[in-house]
Amino acid sequence: MPHASLPLTVASDVAAALKEGKAVVALESTIITHGMPYPQNLAMAREVEAIVRQAGAVPATIAVLDGHLMVGLSDDDLERLAQEGHKAAKASRRDLAALLVKRGIAGTTVATTMQIAALAGIQVFATGGIGGVHRGAAETFDISADLSELAKTPVAVVCAGAKSILDIGKTLEVLETNGVPVLGFGTDEFPAFFARESGHKVDHRFDQPEEVAAVIALQQRLGMPGGVLVANPIPVADALDAAAIEARIAEAIAAAEAAGVTRKALTPFLLQRIFELTEGRSLAANIALVKNNALVAAQIAVALAALNHADIVV
User: Fold this and answer.
1) For 190-248, how does the pLDDT look when each residue is reduced to its tens digit (9 = 90+)?
2) Contact predicate 132/145, CB 8 Å
3) Active-site residue list
4) Which residues, at least 6 apart from 275, have a Cβ–Cβ distance to it below 8 Å?
5) Residue 124: partners with Cβ closer than 8 Å, 6 or more residues away
6) Is 89 a residue whose pLDDT tops 90?
7) What is the residue-wise DSSP string for the chain?
8) Where are the domains of the chain?
9) How far apart are CA 30 and CA 113, in angstroms?
10) For the whole model, what pTM was predicted?
11) HEC states along 226-253?
12) Given CA atoms 27, 190, 151, 211 in this order, what sign does their dihedral have?
């Protein structure tokens, strides 16, 4: 369903769900284009959408295709993105208009997926991990646009914490400065993507999706700008040892510095190097945490839809 005033195309099942007030979960696409190799990326994308459906919500994978903001992709679209891989652009907020004019193909980052989800009216979004303050940011000023987007765009983001290649303490400080509530789902500690612990506490802990949905709804009623960050740890069985993964991250960062890799190329480089250094265990963990986040996001979206419906009925 195209929108006349914007190059926004919402898939028919997503549009119908939104019109009827049913649960919808936005999904990002840089994890497909830049986060995993083919064909694992395609299998992951299909499995994540299936998990969302099985939990009672409609998946809306978001991407830029041929000059359109796509909200909900066909299986052919998913396969096209997966095969394009790193040849596709990585669309952050600053790139969006230019990529649309160029009629390019791009995976959308957390920030851009939030922006497009909000345009479509989607309230809940599942990703792997958010971007944040990079290590050494005091010299490089490398801070992800994800943090500023969370401060102003009213979309709840379910993640396994911040990517472990980041400075998690400083990332949480920036979120606090910008008034973004950080909720732990079943945890008192902010997770570190591949590991369940980071040594940093969340703002508030909740153990039920209905509780998180209530926070999201009340945040919006209060007129608070911005989103809600829901930190959902990787399952115990899939988590990597925190000390071991930290050592591999340090090696990957050293390799990036030696190669002069910076800015948008840095995160994909680091994730690939960590994959090599862990002999593929990081990829298995990444897939597991994304699936887990999709499940929790769908449960929250279903609870939020029920809450919204109850408000309308009353």
Assistant:
1) 999 999 999 999 999 999 999 999 999 999 999 998 999 999 999 999 999 988 988 99
2) no
3) 28, 163
4) 282, 283
5) 23, 24, 25, 26, 155, 156, 158, 216, 297, 300, 301, 304
6) yes
7) -EETTTTEEE-HHHHHHHHTT--EEEE-SHIIIIIS-TTHHHHHHHHHHHHHHHTT-EEEEEEEETTEEEES--HHHHHHHHHHGGGSEEE-GGGHHHHHHTT-EEEE-HHHHHHHHHHHT--EEE-S-B--BBTTHHHH--B-HHHHHHHHS--EEEESBB-TTB-HHHHHHHHHHTT--EEEES-SB--BTTBS--S-B-SEEE-SHHHHHHHHHHHHHTT--S-EEEE-PPPGGGPPPHHHHHHHHHHHHHHHHHHT--GGGHHHHHHHHHHHHTTTHHHHHHHHHHHHHHHHHHHHHHHHHHHHHHHHH-
8) 2-313
9) 9
10) 0.92
11) CCEEEECCCCHHHCCCHHHHHHHHHHHH
12) positive
- Per-residue pLDDT at 135: 82
Pairing of strands 8-10, 24-27: unpaired
CATH number of 2-313: 3.40.1790.10
The tokens describing 154, both together, are: 């009213």
- The 10s digit of each residue's pLDDT in 130-180 is 999 988 877 778 899 999 999 999 999 999 999 778 899 999 999 999 999
